[in-house]
Design goal:
- This protein folds into two domains: 170 residues, 3-Layer(aba) Sandwich (Rossmann fold); 136 residues, Rossmann fold, CATH 3.40.50.
- Helix 1 crosses helix 9 and helix 7 crosses helix 8.
- The chain starts with a strand and ends with a helix.
- Strands 3-2-1-4-5-10-11 form a seven-stranded mixed β-sheet, sandwiched between helices. Strands 7-8-6-9 form a four-stranded parallel β-sheet, with helices on both faces.
- It is an alpha/beta fold and 342 residues long.
- The longest helix has 22 residues.
- Strand 4, helix 4 and strand 5 form a beta-alpha-beta unit.
- Helix content is 39%, strand content 17%.
- It comes from Labedella endophytica.
- One of its GO terms (biological process) is canonical glycolysis.
- Pathway: Carbohydrate degradation; glycolysis; D-glyceraldehyde 3-phosphate and glycerone phosphate from D-glucose: step 3/4.
- This is ATP-dependent 6-phosphofructokinase.
């Protein structure tokens, strides 16, 4: 059996470890062969490939990014898109089954293709940790570690100048990165998409900290909205899926905080730093396990499913469970964190 492997959507620490885990188990245990599909669904549509064997994946477990490349191409668009054309491309390059590694958009496309009869299994990938069907997705732990270290670093300069620092982290629809990194770094306020807040409340938290002679640290997810806003802050146009490119909410909040409280305030937007670099030890292990489990799914011909982490066990779940709803931060988790605010 020849298996194609692709990575699609945003890059993420741990992608290469998934590839390595799948290739090593497939070649050593089942005598399978592999081919890399380059640049996500674009490679499936256009037939872009690269060799993928034991030599290719040597030492990949600790390497960030993805050796296969990625894109946000929609496999149903363009003259070569659609299930029939995709299957024809896979037949031409000799692929018997496909491992699709990606987030909600990637898995939604994989579901549509498997509904049309293609043989695909999925591996969940998102630093936002927002896929409801898995307890944790790889890349999240690394992103939290990067954000936590960054907050620790800005705290030292904040304390030196008695400034308020507003640190923006990723999180379009959910606030898991902000919640975990903010709690770990001892933030005085954490602002997430699930919990709109008033400017008055944010400034009150900041003022409480300043009145104690401390430098306030505010962590905000890019998708956070004030209770006076209808949509998340966006000034960068639309992405390939016609979604607003978010970012800049910290730049909007910092001057408003300074104007209302008199506390000098600065904004720091971490952006793609959270996606870069080597994966954490936890993410390397989780990624490797998921890659190996994807091979088991193929051997059992469990098409239209993805591997997922439940507790400490890796299980299989249907694609529809993965893309049906987002895993948001529960209110009790936010209330728990809010005890530490101000």
């Amino acid at each position: 059996m020849r298996i194609g492997v692709l990575t699609s959507g945003g890059d993420c620490p741990g992608l290469n470890a998934v590839i390595r885990g799948a290739v090593l188990k497939g070649t050593k245990i089942h005598n399978q062969s592999f081919i890399g599909i380059r640049d996500g669904w674009k490679g499936v549509v256009e037939g872009l490939t690269m060799p993928l064997d034991r030599h290719t994946v040597r030492g990949l477990g600790k390497q960030g990014g993805t050796i296969l490349g990625t894109s946000r191409t929609n496999p149903f668009e363009g003259p070569h898109g659609g299930p029939e054309n995709v299957q024809a491309t896979l037949d031409r390059i000799g692929v018997d089954a496909l491992i699709a590694i990606g987030g909600e958009g990637t898995l939604a496309a994989a579901k549509r293709l498997t509904d049309a009869g293609l043989k695909i299994v999925g591996v969940p990938k998102t630093i936002d940790n927002d896929l409801d069907a898995t307890d944790y997705s790889f890349g999240f732990d690394t992103a939290v570690e990067i954000a936590t270290e960054a907050i620790d670093r800005v705290r030292t300069t904040a304390e030196s100048h008695k400034r308020c620092m507003v640190v923006e982290v990723m999180g379009r629809h959910v606030g898991w990165i902000a919640l975990h990194a903010g709690m770990a770094a001892g933030a005085h306020a954490i602002l997430i998409p699930e919990q709109p807040q008033s400017m008055e409340q944010i400034c009150d938290w900041v003022q409480q900290v300043s009145d104690r002679g401390r430098a306030p640290i505010v962590v905000v997810a890019e998708g956070f909205t004030l209770n006076t806003m209808e949509t998340a802050h966006s000034e960068k146009g639309l992405d390939a899926f016609n979604r607003p490119r978010l970012g800049g909410i910290a730049d909007m909040l910092a001057p408003e905080i300074e104007a209302r409280t008199g506390v000098e305030s600065r904004a720091t937007v971490l952006g793609h730093l959270q996606r870069g670099g080597v994966p954490s030890a936890y993410d390397r292990v989780l990624s490797t396990r998921l890659g190996m489990a994807a091979i088991d799914s193929i051997m059992r011909e469990e098409w239209g499913t993805m591997v997922a982490l439940r507790g400490t066990e890796v299980v299989n779940v249907p694609f529809e469970d993965a893309v049906g709803r987002l895993k948001t931060v529960p209110e009790d988790r936010y209330e728990e964190a809010s005890i530490l605010f101000g």
